[in-house]
Amino acid sequence: MLCLLLIFASCEDNKSSSNPTTKSDTENREKDSVRRILDSLKQAKKSSSEGKIGTLELDFPIAQEKLIPTLTEFGEENPETRIKIITRFGDIEVKLYRNTPLHRANFIMLTKDKYFDHTYFYRVAPGFVIQAGNSDNEETREHRERIGGYLIPNEFDAGHRHTRGAFSAAKYSEQNVSKASSPFEFFIVTGKDGAHHLNNDHTVFGRVTKGMDVVDKISEVKTNESEWPIDNVHIDVEIIE
Fold first, then answer.
1. Do the beta carbons of residue 212 and residue 234 sit within 8 Å?
2. Where are the domains of the chain?
3. Per DSSP, which regions of 78-182 are E strands?
4. Nearest CA-CA partner of 213 in 233, 190, 235
5. Cα–Cα–Cα angle for 78, 71, 130, nearest 5°?
């Protein structure tokens, strides 16, 4: 854009040399052009920071005290329940539960904001879970800071259990007596007998409907001593409907 502006200015200077009476008009036009470009850049930056997703203007970062009304309103305006996780091993389709409305709305919101597209399945515990929603990229940290450091109240009352294929929210263990969920990280239960010791400790808010063979392939990748895959398993998340 800067190169185009400089070329434009050069052409006008050549014209003004042959017709001195137009120099002032040319300078004014150039100033107006620069001003419009700067105003456009400022507006684009402002729109990005305001966090407009769909028809709603979200006030990022989201404050904890405004979380429930924000997610409730967003959920009413964005009723989608089916998402697809895209990996190099194939796709995983998930049905999100309507009776865990805060978790569903939060996941749809982050999906529409493209948060997950910078993240990985970063933990693989064979016969237990594969966990995603984080990465070692600076972009992920910055995206989290923009969205906010809130916690989602648990929704255990829905009664969903950690059976094989359960789609559940990770949580922070320290100073989290209410067992509230992380807004960013989730896991899929891979064990054939489930992981029922996690019931009423993590909120199950969906289930895999297609692609458990993909889940099983991911659960077999080689990891380091921290259960982080040796070769990162990148994900993109899309809404189906």
1. no
2. 2-50, 57-239
3. 82-87, 90-96, 120-125, 129-134, 166-169
4. 190
5. 85
Does the reported pTM lie above 0.85? no
Q: Which residue's entry shows tokens 């297609």? A: 210
* Regions of the chain with pLDDT less than 70: 1-52, 54-55
Nearest of 97, 117, 118, 105 to residue 58 by alpha carbon: 105
Q: How far apart are CA 159 and CA 212, in angstroms?
A: 22
Residues in the chain: 241
User: pLDDT tens across 182-214, in order?
Assistant: 999 999 999 999 999 999 999 999 999 999 999
Q: What is the DSSP string of 158-208?
A: G-----TTEEEE----TT-TT-PBPSS-EEEE--TT--GGGBTTB-EEEEE
Assign domain 57-239 to its CATH architecture: Beta Barrel (2.40)
Amino acid at 93: E
Cβ partners under 8 Å of residue 30, min gap 6: 8, 9, 12
Quote the CA–CA distance of 151 and 176 in Å, as a whole number. 10
d(CA 54, CA 45): 17
